[in-house]
Design goal:
Length: 124
Amino acid sequence: MSNLNRQWLLKRRPQGALSVEDFEYREEDIPNGELNPGEILVRNVAFLCAPTMRNWMDEAGKNLHPTNGLGQPVTALSVGRVVDSANPELPVGARVSLISSWQDYTLVSGTILRPPTILPDGIN
């Protein structure tokens, strides 16, 4: 497993159409250390890029989903593989869909509103 976590951050709130200046690229170490009970570390492999994501970049109070924080990885639906787990329902190796962000690795708390869903075998 690489120690590099590539991320695309929301640099500023978009005004009108999105532009490259709304985002910032950053590389940092992957989250490491012992996981808290219920947490998992997911290696994201695919992201949804959909019009609704634009709403998540607006100021708070304008949509039903929590607003993406400035300086934080862009919120997105994703598919990934569990690479570390302290959650017996989501074992290492499980393929999951989840609300994540534009980064290689996501540390997922056991207390999030929409927990990851295990993908059944045969879905590629």
